Every structure is written in structure tokens, then in C-alpha cells.
Protein 1
Amino acid sequence: MNTATRAFPPFFATQFLGAFNDNYFKNALVMLITFQAAGLWGLGSAQLIALTGGIFIAPFFLFSPMAGKLADRYDKVRLIRIIKAAEVMIMAIGAAGFLLGSLPVLLVALFLMGAQSAFFGPIKYGYLPEILPREDLLKGNARIEIATFVAILAGTILGGLAMSHARLQLIFVPVGIIGLALLGCVAAWRIPRPLHSAVVDSAGVSLWQVFRQDVLASRAVRNAMLGSSWFWFLGATILSLFPVAGKSLIGGDEALITACLTLFSLGIGLGSFVCERLSRGRTELAIVPLGAAGLLIFLIDFAWLCMGLGHTPYTTLRAFLLSAEGLHFSCSLMGMSACAGAFVVPLQTLLQERSREGVRSRVIALANMMSALFMVVSAVALMAAHGLGFSIPQIVLALAVGHLAVCVYTFATVPEFVLRFLCWAVARVLYRIRIEGSERVPSEGAAVLVSNHVTAVDWLLIAASTHRIPRFVMHHSFNDLPVAKYLFRFAGVIPIAGRSESQAVFDRAFVRIEAALKAGEVVCIFPEGQLTRDGHLGPFKAGIERIIATTPVPVVPIALVGFWDSFFSRSRGQWMRGNPLRKLRAETAVRIGTPVSPESVNRHVLQEQVAELLAWPAESAA
């Protein structure tokens, strides 16, 4: 039994029980404030609910630097066990707060619970890459997210139900939170240590150095942090609005608010599950723009819906949920949260994959700090908005505008997200592609991909089938196509021409290829030099040998199978001739072979390897 098989179930249970307990406690506290007229320091219930969100999140900002440093320097499993033991003591304080009816004691317990979660976060996301292979990392993250939000759902429901029984709440809540903490301890003690732990003595590396070298220097990591933090800003704001919206717009009670939180949590879990299925085991950044667009649409829809609520009184939860408004409300809420789940899971996986081993937990700690800052700002802004008299629809519309601004900035500064989405979406509309051997493309460092040339969209098919966006070397005439030329320039395509056409373009292409490889990028070329005219593999030209002689890097052979006779091939003399639906959604494959070392590169050998890939029997669909 390997480490992942042994480690993931108890780790999964530890995470689930921790999230369950957090939300059981928090929702019980929110219900106490909302429906039992609990007040403090002259604050109203809406402002006090927003304040509780800030109190829980503030420790993430205060303690994340220390948490990340500890997680990078010490055994993560031992730290998990210490943290879960601390949870038992914290929940004992919370239980005392409920028994005494003391809001200050409950807020102290809430702050300590936030601190415990702040220390657990960097360990959680740093431990997963140690026990899971790269191809399973997104799946692991998606399942952790699903578990988290199922736990949020269960904790939220049971916390609300416990507080709905006036006589029994003083038994259900204290016993429940302590019991869950004890179960979490049992699960934590069953987590095995990984055989090859990533503990590195990096005490001399300051948090500022990690921020400068690993965050600011990488636009992908920086914007993944921004997107993830924005997700938590949105989530914190929407969740804080539910009690106020349920009471003022719909006239509901604890049951309605619990139903809203249930729908929201189910949506996040659904989005994470869909993300896992669409990604097929890879970190598929194409899903990020898809989730972002859906989230914007549902935010606007939710704001518009809230404008119409409040005119019809609903006497029961069932009456509201079965009404036209209730069905619309449920669909909008679940759609919003599902898109949010699909938006954030690839971003979190990207942070793990592109963070250096030895400082990964500190990068995640910085991400948690940023998320915490956004959530504290959310609490303060929400308190101010309520104080200034802003309506719920106005607040949600403001969130939609902010979301649009964050997306425009992120996708404009990191074109990889948009390029990946375009390639992924178009390739799956045109064909049913089976991807074989995608893990053979190096995850880091320079490499050259060589492929047969079947259609005018081969670049798009390869980009959709690899986890890195290559720099494609394509005939310069493609840069003159209307509309498409902007996409090629956006993608950093390297134009090339034959010597007889333009010696200057030919020489400049090799200079740019050398620069890209020295920068650690992946470059893709089509050594045949032109689209096949008969569907067969043509002779490879000597350009690949010149590239490797100048910049020795691994070469990965690729075969595009089943694309001949499609609309974009030359099977009718010219591409884009005849019936455009020809071979639409046909069964095809992108087969990626074993990398060839630089010293073994020979154009004839590479041609034979691509020919062998073309002749392979089809593997089972990925």
C-alpha cells in the first residue's frame, strides 16, 4: 500500500471534522446573535455578524507567517496532531461560553478557533504535494474542497438545528463541539508520515524573500493568490448577507437561513466535482475563466432577484422554495457557488504546483494572509455598507463590479488563463480528443515538442492537450489572418519562413526560439514544414537539429491521430474547404511519446518515433 493510499483517508477525515466543527460552532453563534437579540458594544445584529467574520479571519493575517515557517521547517504530521489537540481546549472554552451565555467568551473562542485554522492551512496544502503524485494533485484538491464544503453544509445545518431547540441547545452545542474536536484528534493520530518529507531547513529565508522571489516574480502565482483571495472575499460577504437577507427580504427564520447556506455549500461542492471531471486529472486552467464568467452572470442575476423579494410574505420554508421566486433563488444561489468552486480549485492547485519545495508552505501562508486581509476588508466594508444604509441588491451589484475588475486584471496580465480556455473549449467542440502520455511533457524547464502537421489548428490541439502552453513556431502567413493574428501575437507565436521566402524571417525565428528555450519555455515545432497533403507523415527537416545544437534540451515527440479529412486539413486540396461539419466531434487522439535526450536527437530518429506513435493501438479514453 503506497503512502497516498494510507495517508489520504485519515487526512481527509481530519480536514472534514475540523471544517465541520468550525461551522457548527460559527453557525450556532450566528443564530444566537440573529434570533436571540444578543448584542455587544451597542452594535446591531447585522453589524455584529459581520464583526464575527472579521474576528475569525483576523488570526489568518496575524499568524500565517509563523504558520508557514513552521510548516516548512518541521514535520507536518506532528504539527497537525498538536493543532488538533489545541482544538479540544479551544472548544472547551467555546462550550463554557454557551453554557454561561457569555458573548465575549464566545468571541474569544472564535478568535482562537481562527488561529488554529490559520496554523492548519499551510500544513494542509503543503502536505498534499508530499503524498500525491502531480497527476493526482488537482483531484486531491477538488476532493478536499468537496469535503470542506460538505462539512460546512453539515456543520451549518446541525448548528442551526441545535440552536432551534431552546431547551436542548445548552446540551447539543457544547457536547457537539467538544466531541467533534476529539474525533478530529483520533483521525490526526492515524495520519502516517510521508516516506520523503519535504521538510527543508530554510530558516534563513525570510517571508519577504519568499514574497519577492516566489510571488512577485511569478505573475501566475501572484494572480492565483489574487483570484483565490477574491473568492474568499466574495464567499465571506455572501455568507454574511444570508441571515440579513433571509430575515428582511423573505421573512424567514433559522430554517430558511440554514437552507440558503445548504444550497451555497452544495453548489461549491458541485463546482469542485465538475472541475475535477473536466480537468481529467490535470491542472486545467481553462476552467478558471469559465468559472469566472459564470460567477459574474449569477452575481448579477442574484442582485436582480433580490430586488424583487420582500413583496410576497411566505409563511413556511416549503412555500418559499416551491414558489417561482424560491426556485429562481435556489438556482441562482447554487449556480453562483458552483461557478465559484470551479473558479478557485485550479487556482489553489496552481499555487501548489508552481511553488518551490522548501518554501511552499510559506507561499501558501502568504496566500492565506492575502485571503485573510480580503476577508477582514469584507467584514469592515459590510459593516460600513449596513451602517450607510446600502441595500442587499446594491451590495451584490458592487461585488459583481469588483469581480469583473479582478478578472480583467488577472486575465490581461496572465494570458495563459485565456489562451488555455480558448484552446480547451474550441478543441472539445471540434473533436472528442483522447490524450495519451500528457505527463511526459516536462513540468519545469525548457523542452521542444515535435509533431506531425495535419490541420491548421494543430497548435490549438496540442495546447489543449499539455499542461504547459508552448511557444509555437508557425509559418508567418498565419500572422496575417484576420482576427486570428491577434490571438497568435497574444500567444507569443514565433513566425518562420523558408529560406527562399525570407532569410531574415528564417534567421530571426531561430534567434527567438533560442531565447525562449534559454528562458525555460516549451517550444513546439512541426518539422515537416507544411500541412500534409495526403494524410501521411512527411520527411522531417533539419531545423530541429539546428535548434538542439544551439540549445540542448529534451525533445518530446507527439502524434496527432485521426484529424485527417477534417474541415481544417488539406484533404480537399485546401484547408477549410467543403462541409465544415465533416468529422465534427470525431474520435481523435493526441499521443505524447517519451522525451529524447539532446545528445540523441536526430531528425530521422524523431520521424520514426512520431511514426510509431501514429501506429500505436488506441488506449482507453482518458
Protein 2
Amino acid sequence: MALRREITARLTDLLRKNPQGLSITEIVKQININRNTAGRYLDNLLISGQVEMRHFGMAKIYRLSERMPVSSVLSLSSEFVMQIDNSLRVVFLNKPFALLIGADEKEFTGKNIEFTKIPSFFDDTYPELLAAIREGISGTEFRGELDLPACGCSFSYRVVPIVFANGQKGASLIFEDITDRKQGEALLRESEEKFRTLFNNASDMIMLHSLIGDMVDGHYIEVNEVACQKLHYSREELLAMAPRDLVAEDSLASVSGLGRELLDEGHVTFEMILLTKDRKRIPVEINVHLFVFKDQPVGLAIIRDITLRKKAEHQLQLMKTSIDSAYDEIFWMDMAGNFLYVNDAACRVTGYSREELMAMTVFDLDPDFSPARWQESIADLRKNKKQFFQTRHRRKDGVIIDVEIGSVYVTREKEEISFCFVRDITERNRIEGALKESEARYRSLAEASRDMIFVVDRDDRVLYINQRAADFLHTSLGEITGRPRSAFFSPEVSEGQLRGLHRVFSTGEPVRSEGPMTLYNGEVLWFDHALMPISDATGNVTSVLGVSRDITKRIAAEQEQRMNEEKSRFIAEHSVDIIHRLDPDCVLLYTSPSVTTLLGYEPEEVLGKSVLGMIHPDDLPGVIQDLHGIHESGKQTTTSAFRFRHKNGQYILFETTTRIIRDQHGKVMEFLNISRDISGRAGKNP
């Protein structure tokens, strides 16, 4: 049975005349209805919020409610709220919902929802929403989520059954914009998926461990399959272990203090020996990156097995040492008989200096070689790739000596080279292969490098220098090799280098440094220097290999970037205009302090919020239209005028110049706005 409006009106009028309240017995005495009817009407008035009830002893006292009307409360809500009666007519629509749909509240009130913009706005999701509304009207609360691809938004919504003042059933719809949350969740899932793919498919061992104390303390949080395979442990076994359990005893000292360095720098790289389950030693290079997981510091260790690299480095070191310290003569020659390289033994045996030999040809040294014989020898060498023969050499003092020569033919970047080993046949058989391969590798690596490479002995003499280093010193290779290193640098630079060299010779450990160098012409260049010990068979450091990289451009770029950032911040912090940085959705990423002076807001009050909410509603459609135009055009800057809302509610007219920052594909990445108060100027114009 439907509730009658006249009975509802008689009840509310009676309670209005008796603000102190009446019991149900007193009410039925004054109006001509029975007790059951009065109770039913009073219950509906209680549900709709028009009447309040309190207990007085055993009696229930009813009086009119003094609470704020629901519509007034909903109008203040930042959520999107709509109320619908059982005829699907819109009873109430708050302002945020109207702005979302793109219309005025008055266009909706009293109209059937089917004849408003709501079905077209919700598009394919409207049937789902309508079904939820019908459920709410029938008395069932409903919750759900809707994605609207057309506007790029996602909403969570709640349908709550209600009863209006006239006793009519209806439903309240409350929408919440969850676009940012869902996008964040999607990005998080994508990031986690990328990490998991990299983690499980990496060719290196990857291990995550907690940081407690030093680098080898804590416990493993996660390991990839490669780590299990390399170390011969199951995943469960590794997760029950600490890094210390895998480190060889003689490597523990090398990681002492690295935990503090990781916390300070965020990244460390080092080498050590790990032990497999069957106690096999594996040399590894470890890169550890610091990050925070569940408010605790965690180390992400990328571990590379460098067994093959260590073997190759050791072989290269042995081969180079063999060449430079060989007892017999070694010559490199081109196909015209010009010497490209001679070792110390060649100078010692022949009596010529390296510079003198490098200026000579094979015909100056060998009295038996005629041009015709040389061509025959070269043809045979090209065909067979190696030769063994006896000939004679004339020393600087004129003495003729008999020698045995082994020649090897190699090509390097289309250049033909003959490696000649001048020695006793027994010694030749012993070291021929090693010298050939080691010198070819060493020379190829050193001369192809873009860095400056040199070798200095304990007497501070330059044993080797590559062409790039010689070009930097504006000196030929022959004028540098064998001379004191200090002869090519200023005293200040030379003394700094010498301290690093002495440290390597005394400790046997590599030294890494970075700093400026002032040249003789006053030019200042920045270098990254690495000094590494070269030891003999007994472990004594006999020389130092140095690698220097010019990092001047990188340092200059870093300094220029810091200066530009400081200038930009100084301008922003002292500008009388408001400077905004916005993302493509017009959410504030930065605002200058002048926002407080001109609009009354503290920066933290507006950061992270959409600037569109501060624009006058009459100006907003034009601003949105301009934004669409910016995304579709190739504009770099645009200027417009619109009103911003002051914190006190007043609107102020600003002229805003916007610079659009795009990526290499033209996509809008950010907006940079400079807004100037022109309200005074606008007031003077007719």
C-alpha cells in the first residue's frame, strides 16, 4: 500500500508545532489515524531523515530532524553523486558529476535518465550501470568499476538504496575517479613483469639479499635460475643461506667496508671468488645496486662468471711480458722491409737505439738481402705464412754476426706484417707460438683503443705507449719509448702521476683516479686514470699499465647542466609571475612561490592536483579546446587568457604563455606555463 502525501504532511505539521517531540500515543490522539499506520509513516520519515527518534523511559519520542538536507551535503562532495527515483528520474546531480558529463545540473533534474546525456557518456557500459541502478531501487546495494575508453577514465561506483521524503524508493549513485590508481597499478604490473622477465632470462647470476652489517651479511631474498645452475644449489638452499656462505675465505677481506660504500654511493663493483656446492672456485665480477624493499635496504647483485676473461687476461699479460722482456731480438716489418717495431734485445744485440732501428730498413741491417731476394722471400712468406732461414746482420760497430730467423705473416685490418724472431733455433721453437699470438693481440687491442695506453717500469721509463697517447703528447712513438715519463709533463702533473705509480708498485693493487690536468699551453682537461700492476712469474710488480680516458666533455656537460638548473630555479623562485610545470593531464608537477602571493595557495596545496579545477567554469571549455588543439597540432608555444580562482574564492584574470615540450615523436610530454596577472590591465580597457 502506497504512502499518502496528506498523511505525511499532517504528521510533519503536528511535529513542527511540537518541537519538544511527541510519543506515538500522543500523535494518534491528535490526528485521525490508527497506531499501526502512524508507526509505518514514522518509520519511513526516519529512513528519509526527516524525523528523529529518541527514547524517554519506555516511550519513543519523535520530532522533526534538524540535520542538514542530504542534497546540501552531497553538493559539497568532491565525488560524483546522482540520485534517481523509482521512475528512473534524476532527482539530484551534484556539480562535479555535471561537469564530468559536460552539462548543467538543471539539464538533468526531473528528467528520465534515458533522455539525458548519461547513456551516451557511459556508452557501452551504460547497460551495466542501468542494471545496477535498478538493483539499488529494488533495495540491493551494488558496487563495481567502469572503464570509459572515450575519455580515458576509470571509475569505481556504489549504488545505495534510499527512500525519499514522500516515501518513494530510489537509489544514490556515488562515483570515484580511479584513473590514476589503475594507471599506476598497470605501470607497476608492467614494471614487475619486465623485471621478472629480465631476472629469469638473464645470462648472469642475479641475487637479491638484505643488507645487515657488511656486504656478505644478511640473507638471500631471491635468486634466478642461472645462480642455481652455476653454484649447484637449489633455490630453496640458496634462500636459506647468507652471502658469506658462498664467499671464498681469501676473498672476505676484499669486501670489507663495501656495505657502507653501497649505502653511501648506491652502487659498488668488485671482483671476488665464489664457491659452488662442491667447493669449486669461480672468479666473478659483481655489480651491486642499492634499493629499498619494504622499508629495508636490499642489494641487487648482478654476478658475472669471469673465468674465461681471467684466463685471457693472464695469457695476455704473460704474452706481453714475454715480448718486452724477451732475450732474443724481435722485429716487426711491413712488406717493404720497414721496421714497425723492435724490442730491447734487438737494440742490445745490434748496438743501435730504437729510434735508429725504426728509421732503418731490412737492407740496412742485412748485407745479404738484395731487393730481388727480398721479393722472393715475401712471395714465399705470403704463400706459406711462415719462414725459417739463416742470414747475417751487421751491428752498428760493423761486426757481422750470424743469426737464425723465424718469420710469421699476419694481417691486421688489411695491413700485411712480418713478425721476425731473431734467435737461436732452440729458443725459437720454445717461444715462437706464444710470442706471435700475444703480440698480435696486445698490439691490436692497444692501438685500436680510443683511450691513451702506456706502460712504465720501476725506473719510471716509458716502456710502451699507443698512438693515441703519442698524438696527445704531440710526440712520435720513437721519441717517447725508453725515455723518463716525467720528461713529457709539467712538474705538478708528473708528481701526481708518480704518487699513483708508487702506490701500485708498493701495494700491488690497481689505482683509479679522476681529475683535471693543466697542459703546457694552459688548457685544462679532465681524465679518468686507471693504473694496473704487471707482475713477473714470481709475483713481483715489474711495471704498471696505465689507461687514461679524456672525460673533459662529460665534466663540462655536467657542470653546464648544474648551472642551467641553478639558473632556472633562481628565475622561477624570484619571478613575480606564476611558473607552472604540468604533465599532459594538466596535473601540477611544480609551481613557483609566487602562487602564494598572487593566488593565496601554498605550493604544497596545489601540487599533484589538476590545474583545470582552478579555472573559472566559463573559461574552462575554451581551455580544454585549446588543449585538444595543442595535442593535435605541432605548436611549440601558445598564449591565452583565462581566470584562476584565488584561495578566497575570487577569480583573477591571467594571461598565460605555454611552452609545449614534446618527445622526438612529437608527443606532448609536459607543459611549461608562465601566468601573468592582467586583471588590472583588463579593468582599464573598455
